[in-house]
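Go through this one:
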Amino acid sequence: MKSVSRFLITQILAAKSKSVLKRHRTQIIAITGSVGKTSTKEAIYHIVGRHFKAHHSPKGFNTELGLSLSVLQEEASGFSSVKAWLGILKRAFAKRKLPYNKIVLEMGADKPGDIRKLTKIAKPNIAVITNVNPVHLEKGQFKDLDDIRNEKASLISGLRSEDVAILNFDDPLVKTMPTKGRIFSFGTTQEVDVRASEIESTNKGLKFTVTYKTESANFAVPVLGTFQIYTLLPAIAVGLTLGLTLKDCVAALRDFQLPNSRMNSIPGIHHSTIIDSSYNASPTSMARALELLKELKADRKIAAVGTMNELGDRTKEAHLLLGANAAKAADIVVAVGQEASTIKQGAKEAGMPENQIYTFMTSDEAGAFLKDFLLPKDLVLVKGSQNRVRMERLVKIIMETPELASQLLCRQDRAWEKI
């Protein structure tokens, strides 16, 4: 779709979305952060959607255009199809949609000013900030970590005194963000409003205790990794802000599942197990995933890791560290993409023998290799950035039931298959 047409469609849908939200006096719950936005959005909706007439998009719609699609209850982008966009415009103005009085929105930012564009469409009543990490550092994006912090902080800078800012106090860059809204904090220290303790991670999920005021409750959630506490705590905080109890949150999260390709366990060929985190990757999320691989038990652990994009001057340093961390967590490293040789160098420098490191330019090549290489009881972590890497293609090759790829993996739409 040509840039002029895209701009016009973006403006039309933004105006319509703003009108819809204003007309229905919709309470807006917005989430931003460097990593884990979609998972956090899903956890929040899993609680909110059980008790209120609420809406969200299961897609990672976090751009100006995506935000409008979410508000207007569209399930897919029109990509480059003029016909598809015309259909979206027609439905936006002619089709009656199911009403809702709360909406959970994900707000992303690739460069300064992105979040302000989103809050002009949907000004939040409850704003959640999960973390600040080094991402989107290419030319024309963010200059440094302070630049990223300032952009994320813009989500809460316009809050009114009656609005709520739900902040991760375990992240020092989030903790000090200024706002006129009421601060509701979460984390693992004594000073926070919603505190997690006794956190235990197993191959089946996460167990922890949450304390709020004078009450405590025990949670058991089927998600992998200790770090997922920062996905679940803000969801619990939102629930409490809306008047729910800890007991309500325990019941809601008991069957919570992460979105596709975000640390999901999938059966692999030859009786192996895949931890599919192929949706995207950054230095922080990659480190978390490798830490999980280290925690889990298996006869042989394989880290299939792809290039991380948009790191600017930090690219080499980040991939050397990725290789070193992979060497500490896995028995075998499979590196994929333009930085595969850098990942290999990092793994070798960390002491991994060269014959335990394999490099490939594409995920398809790596998948073909693993298809013959995997043994029973192998545990394979698969993670990498989306653009130009697309590690879900590797997962599809080595999963036990590739016919279920459309249900279990990310980016299985026809439009994505053409990219």
Notes: The chain has two domains: 3-253, 264-417.
